[in-house]
Amino acid sequence: MTASVPTTYELSVEQKYRFDLQGYIVLEGHYDASAIEELHVGIDELQAIPVEHEAYSKLGVASYALAAAMNDPQHPVWNGDHRIDRVHPEKGTVGRVDHALCGTDKFDLIVRDPILKAIHTTLAGGDVFISATYFIEKVGPVKGGGLHNGGFPVDRDIYYAYDHTHQRFACSSTKSVVILSDMTKIESGPFAAIPGSHKANFACPFDMSDASENPMAVPVFAAPGDVIIFSEGMTHNAFPVTDHSTRRSVFFCYMPAIGRNNLPDHRMSIYPDHVLERLPDQAELLTSPGYI
To answer: Considering its fold, how many domains does the chain have in total?
Structure first.
């Protein structure tokens, strides 16, 4: 984000139309070089954490295997059994860490971003909280991830909705993808989307294992500092990285929060105390009211 930050932000009619029609929009050049560098440092810090159950549990970060690994100290992930697209072959570091806010303060600039908060609040139709934070690093050449979400049956946890009577969004889950690497070429493994699939009434009949083999999937080209905002109800993932570049991006997920706040001193959070103490002014985004 550049030095001049607007105090208020509203999606334009063009942005609303694009998001409703295709399921995503792109904020071009949203973050400047300084912010990009800080986010890279954050990934470096997360990769420096020993991939050990005790180390992760102490901080509150999580393996990309999530509950399966975090509830099992003997899970194969702690012994180096990672997906082929989740490791850096030269450095030996892991290519994804979840609950990233628990392991670095370098992503705090995204938490504090008033524009992203305003956009996701609009898309949710009300207050939101940050439900997931992680990075993904892929070192090419490496396969892309399998396309997921969208179509039928509808996943009620991530559905897209729009109130046609009052012309407002009511999305259950939306994400910001902060692009840190050059993804302006297909060889670099850009974000993959099936536009409009957030409103699909049928399951995709084409190859979901590889975006490059699916005729409905399109690349969403983006440069460092761009932010892709999308509905999780849309079918998405990434194209394969076919060159030798390193592909890095940071993901923040936003979901609707309980609106009432009858017990402001008893708010609930998925984040440990050290994160809440670090970001006391962002309690709205990191906690939910404790009483309905």
So the answer is: 1
Whether 23 maps to a domain, the answer reads no
pLDDT for 277 beyond 70: yes
- Dist. CA 270–CA 19, nearest whole Å: 29
Q: Considering only CA atoms, which of 146, 120, 82, 155 is closest in space to residue 251?
A: 120
Question: What's the CATH code of the domain at 164?
Answer: 2.60.120.620
Other beta carbons within 10 angstroms of residue 267's beta carbon come to: 18
Q: Render pLDDT for 27-45 as a digit per residue (tens, 0 to 9).
A: 999 999 999 999 999 999 9
Measure Cα distances from 168 to 13, 19, 163, 171, 191 in Å.
12, 12, 5, 10, 26
pLDDT of residue 7: 62
Give the integer Cα–Cα distance in Å for 113 and 109.
Answer: 6
Instruction: Specify the residue for token string 């009300």.
Output: 126
**Domain carrying residue 34:** 29-286
What pLDDT is recorded for position 1? 63
**Cα→Cα distances 194→104, 217, 219, Å:** 33, 5, 9
